[in-house]
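At this stage, I wrote out one protein's amino acid sequence and its backbone structure tokens, and that material follows here:
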Amino acid sequence: MELEAKMQEPGTTVVITISAQSRSALAAFYGLSPGETQQRLAAWLASRGVAAVLDLGTARDMALASGRGGGP
């Protein structure tokens, strides 16, 4: 997989964002709460080398803050 190959390169940090809609759909499918779904996804992705798993809303806020030169 291309992502896995990229993750092996020195200096590469992988951050994944998940939308509320995707998290809710997975939660409903597996009968979990959205919070538990986020925790399980984050743990599974971390076990594969992902540095961080962010809610898409949080990632959007961070991008907007960095664009205006401020912090979150």
